[in-house]
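Running co-folding for adenosine-5'-diphosphate.
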Amino acid sequence: MVKVKVKLVSWEEIVDWSMRLAENIRASGWRPDVVVAVARGGYVPARLLCDFLEVTDLLSVQSQHWVEAAKMADKAILRYPYKLDMSGHKVLLVDDIVDTGESLMLAREYIMREWRPQELRIATLQWISPVAKIKPDYFLIEVKDWVWFQYPWTRLEDVTQFLSRIFKEVREVTEEDLKRLFEEWYGIHPHELGAYWEMALRRLESKGLLRKADGKYVRIKEQ
Ligand code: ADP
């Protein structure tokens, strides 16, 4: 049984999706003069949209979801807030995906209040409609069943995280069994990950969470 549904996204898909998203924006007859990427997930799509829409002005804001330790409640915060005068400008705010949409809502609210653009629209590659609190003005794919989109720009981070979750339950494992477990849990075969598989394991080793002994991976600390 797959524990987390994962869609492994390729660079080719990213380019194709961004191209088609740009076509939708063009077809609507609206043209932004500034693109704002929501860091970090929006960077690559935002840069590609600039290329496809012939926009030269690209900025970014960093919106981050974090768990407030005291309350254990999710809260989105804007890191490095800065002020600009965007009056008279049409802004396209870009992110990779709207899941809950909290980060995007926060970014939108901040930009509208502090930058005061003439207009702001939102574009994302994916929109997880059943859980999202907002619907972007432009999106390419509506996702009806929640999936973790494993985008190419978070591959190492995600694979490391996926592996560390396995090691929360498994103390000692051969590489072969680890590969089998990984496929069982995430529906991805490690050979699809190329060099990332080894890199993620090495990252866990260098963090002191894992070590290799007698052909087996052994968890070191409680994780
Ligand atoms: P969250 O409540 O998880 O912060 P958001 O909709 O605010 O959800 O998304 C914040 C960022 O987290 C997204 O821009 C994206 O980079 C990442 N993210 C959230 N959900 C997913 C998902 N299902 N697949 C891939 N990345 C995701």
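Result summary
The pocket of adenosine-5'-diphosphate is lined by residues 41, 65, 95-103, 148-149 (CB under 6 Å).
The two ends are 23 Å apart (CA to CA).
Job closed.
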